[in-house]
Amino acid sequence: xxxxxxxxxxxxxxxxxxxxxxxxxxxxxxxxxxxxxxxxxxxxxxxxxxxxxxxxxxxxxxxxxxxxxxxxxxxxxxxxxxxxxxxxxxxxxxxxxxxxxxxxxxxxxxxxxxxxxxxxxxxxxxxxxxxxxxxxxxxxxxxxxxxxx
Length: 149
Description:
Layout: H1 9-18, E1 21-25, H2 34-45, E2 48-52, E3 60-61, E4 64-65, E5 79-82, H3 89-99, E6 103-106, H4 113-121, E7 125-127, H5 132-137
Parallel strand pairs: 1-2, 1-5, 5-6, 6-7
Antiparallel strand pairs: 3-4
Helix pairs in contact: 3-4
């Protein structure tokens, strides 16, 4: 897939309708961080959220048990959402493949085409540079750019 082109609504919505369990790599307990807000909305929407944060002092976020890395999660993961630097995406893609995830999703600003190719070659669907929180509401929110002021 050419990730420099816009994703179709069917592709994005198909992913969001099919996944149930999402591991969020880079989840933060800080309520002012974007990752916290995305985790909150996805959790409140009904997704089984699994926060992943390597800091030993972070034991839970929003009452959810925090895991230090993907390979220690004790249940199947449908989607791995990445709130990390783009250069971290390759290692996370390898881990997502190893745990049997079906989707690798890079948050806004998280793009690595080699990592995407690796994941796709392993059978995962890939989204990069998008936010699932925004995409959840996109079908209901359409900008009206043709309105006069």
